[in-house]
From TrEMBL:
The chain crosses the membrane at residues 14-39. One of its GO terms (cellular component) is plasma membrane. Residues 181-234 form the HAMP domain. The keyword Transferase applies. GO terms for molecular function: phosphorelay sensor kinase activity. It comes from Croceicoccus pelagius. The keyword Ribosomal protein does not apply. Its EC number is 2.7.13.3. Keywords: Kinase, Membrane, Phosphoprotein, Transferase, Transmembrane, Transmembrane helix, Two-component regulatory system. InterPro entries: HAMP_dom (IPR003660), HATPase_C_sf (IPR036890), HATPase_dom (IPR003594), His_kinase_dom (IPR005467), HisK_dim/P_dom (IPR003661), HisK_dim/P_sf (IPR036097), Sig_transdc_His_kin-like_C (IPR004358), TCS_sensor_his_kinase (IPR050428). It is found in: Membrane. Pfam families: HAMP (PF00672), HATPase_c (PF02518), HisKA (PF00512). This is histidine kinase.
Length: 449
């Protein structure tokens, strides 16, 4: 299941869309965190560090009273970030401070002090980002600045980030699924049309929605190509039909003339034999023209098919009965496996012709004393023979008109039998397939029942 979805372009686009949206949201949140929290926090640290150096220098140079005065002045100055500090004697006594409490032990790194201020029954929340400085005489100086807003932002980002990412992925997948479904439907319409054309419906066209989008433009281009291909195919088919049809009449007259001339010579005469050979070639040409015309009529939908319920097993039995004398003369054994197989709609005469052509081929290429097996199942027929088989590279070309594999060219044939069988099966929404087997060659004639 996963492999099938992953092979779908629309599914991969939807997944990539969700991932890209999630990464974009994560990047935006990270950028906000850096700009709104990290950079301002670094600025506060730099400022507090600078103030600590200046205040410690006042204590060293001018003494404790001067430092207390400097701290009080620092607190009194109006600033965006409120100043906090504490000067603690070596015995732990607070010399001066505007924070309610502080760690008893000296901290070696940055830390926060809750510096809330209570007045008139209310409370102002402050958090001082602070740093310690210990003088040689044991006096401790704590210097800080309010970063309550920065900590609030950091907490919001940390708490909201997981939920935000989850919602982003969910909405991304939902949007991707909608996009995937929309694209998938348009692609399915193109694929369905291509499949119809491949199966022989040259009139199939891709539907457009009139929106003028990329898919409509693609559909218009494909439809133009299909129309052009249909025109070319119809032209070629008309030419071939006309050629075959026009040649039938002079060929029939030629045959009649040869038959009239043959009557003027006694049987066994050399001239009689030559004319008889010419008549055989003429009959072969007539058979070829008739086959070509029949294939053209079937492929063009011009054959008057008589569709009704068909017993495939009975047709197989009739075909085997027809070819049984030929098989007996060549010492070939027929094995019949007939199951209960009924085609709801089919032309029994055409189906008989298709199976007859396949059996005729099997009889041609099966050696004397060989075996042919005809099997009937619910899906169609299978004809297996003990012949030499066909070169693997030629299997896909066996239904081409006049094509004959190099492995069987020495045996007489015109290369149209399987072409006609394929056209008949296509008319019945069926398929003709071939494969070599360890025992010979297998032809499968399948129907959609």
């Amino acid at each position: 299941m996963t492999g099938r979805y992953w092979r779908s372009l629309s599914f991969r686009i939807a997944l990539l869309y969700a991932v890209a949206l999630g990464l974009s949201m994560a990047f935006v949140a990270a950028s906000y965190f850096v700009i709104a929290v990290l950079i301002p926090s670094d600025e506060v640290r730099n400022r507090v560090a600078q103030e600590t150096r200046l205040l410690s220098q006042i204590y060293v140079v001018d003494g404790e009273e001067a430092l207390v005065t400097a701290l009080e002045e620092r607190r009194a100055r109006t600033d965006e970030r409120r100043a906090f500090d504490a000067l603690i004697a070596a015995d732990g006594r607070a010399i001066t401070a505007n924070v309610p409490s502080w760690p008893t032990r000296i901290q070696n790194d940055w830390y926060s002090i809750e510096a809330d201020i209570y007045r008139e029954g209310g409370e102002d929340d402050f958090s001082a980002l602070s740093r310690d400085h210990l003088f040689d005489d044991g006096v401790r100086l704590i210097v800080g600045r309010d970063v309550e807003d920065l900590e609030d932002r950091e907490e919001i980002v940390r708490q909201a980030m997981p939920a935000l990412l989850i919602l982003t992925v969910v909405f991304g997948l939902a949007g991707g699924a909608f996009m995937s479904r929309t694209i998938g439907k348009r692609l399915e319409a193109i694929t369905a049309t291509a499949r119809r054309v491949t199966e022989g419906d040259l009139g199939g066209r891709v539907a457009t929605r009139g929106k003028g989008d990329d898919f409509d433009q693609l559909a218009v281009t494909l439809n133009r190509m299909l129309e052009r291909n249909q025109e070319l195919f119809e032209t070629v088919r008309r030419v071939s039909d006309n050629v075959a049809h026009e040649l039938r009449t002079p060929l029939a007259r030629l045959t009649a003339r040869l038959e009239a001339i043959r009557t003027k010579f006694p049987a066994g005469n050399d001239d009689f034999d030559e004319i008889d050979s010419a008549l055989e070639e003429s009959a072969r040409l007539q058979a070829i023209f008739n086959a070509l015309l029949r294939i053209a009529r079937i492929e063009g939908g011009r054959h008057g098919a008589n569709f009704r319920k068909v017993d495939l097993g009975q047709i197989a039995a009739d075909c085997v009965e027809l070819y049984a004398p030929v098989a007996l003369d060549r010492g070939i054994t027929f094995e019949v496996s007939s199951g209960n197989a009924v085609l709801p709609e089919g032309d029994p005469d055409l189906l008989f012709q298709a199976l007859s052509n396949v059996l005729d081929n099997a009889l041609k290429y099966t050696p004397v004393g060989g075996r042919i097996t005809v099997g009937t199942e619910s899906g169609g027929w299978t004809v297996s023979d003990s012949g030499p088989g066909v070169d693997e590279q030629d299997l896909k070309r066996l239904t081409e008109r006049f094509f004959r594999s190099n492995s069987v060219r020495a045996i007489a044939g015109d290369g149209l039998g399987l072409s006609l069988a394929a056209a008949i099966l296509q008319l019945h929404s069926g398929s003709l397939s071939f494969r070599n087997s360890p025992d010979g060659f297998v032809v499968s004639m399948s129907f959609q029942t």
